[in-house]
Amino acid sequence: MAHTKNSYNPNISLLKSGDNAEFMRFVASFKDRVFNTCLSFVPNQADAEDLAQEVFVEVFQSVKHFNEQAMLSTWVYRIAVNKCLEELRRRKQQKRAAFFKGLLGIDHEALQAQSSDFDHPGFVAENNELAQAIFGEMNKLPESQRIAFTLTQIDGMSYEETAAVMGNSKSSVESLIFRARTALKKNLKPLKP
User: Which of 77, 90, 128, 141 is most buried by a 10 A CB count?
Assistant: First the structure.
């Protein structure tokens, strides 16, 4: 879903002081954007909701250390992206462990594909197979390319916003997206009718 602006302007002083009412306003304003970002990395609604909750817990616990040199939204997106990457790394480790267990005949079921985990609402049901292929190929991209591509092409962030979230220059983001698109076109070409 596209990244949209809203009129809410968080009171950072209140957030830093632990004001619950201000934090609830902040969550209400940012929850959809954070959820959509998480969903773009982990295309399962329940998992994305869990990750979004983790993001807000971390924001609540660490907002007092926010240095205000970056925009608050940029800082929140960085936390969201990092939480998603941590989760993807954890899953990779679990898959590797399952592979070795399966190889040794210990846990055969762990190797079965989990296609039921895919339910990203940005794709209609008849394109589910293609959507799985696209997200599968996106997950094979180098991490920096995957982040840049996801934030701009899936979440609808501008190159400038993506550069701020990633701590890169705009030209670096453009280059990452170009390389990601090139790789995706090449790898998805066999799927075209």
Answer: 77
Last residue of a domain, one of 61, 79, 113: 113
CATH, residue 109: 1.10.1740.10
**Residue 63 tokens, joined:** 């907002």
On the question of pLDDT at 138 being above 50, the answer is yes
Q: Which residue do the tokens 């993807």 mark? A: 88
Residue 22 within a domain: yes
Tell me how far apart the alpha carbons of residues 68 and 113 are, in angstroms, rounded to a whole number.
44
Q: What was the pLDDT predicted at 98?
A: 62
Q: How many domains does the chain have?
A: 2
Helix (H, G, I), strand (E, B) or coil at 124: coil
Rounded CA separation 137/30 (Å): 28
Q: For the chain, how are helix, strand and coil distributed in percent, rounded to 5?
A: 75, 0, 25
**156 vs 65: which has the higher pLDDT:** 65
Average pLDDT, the chain: 79
Does 1 share its domain with 95? yes
Residue with tokens 């220059």: 169
Same domain assignment for residues 141 and 167: yes
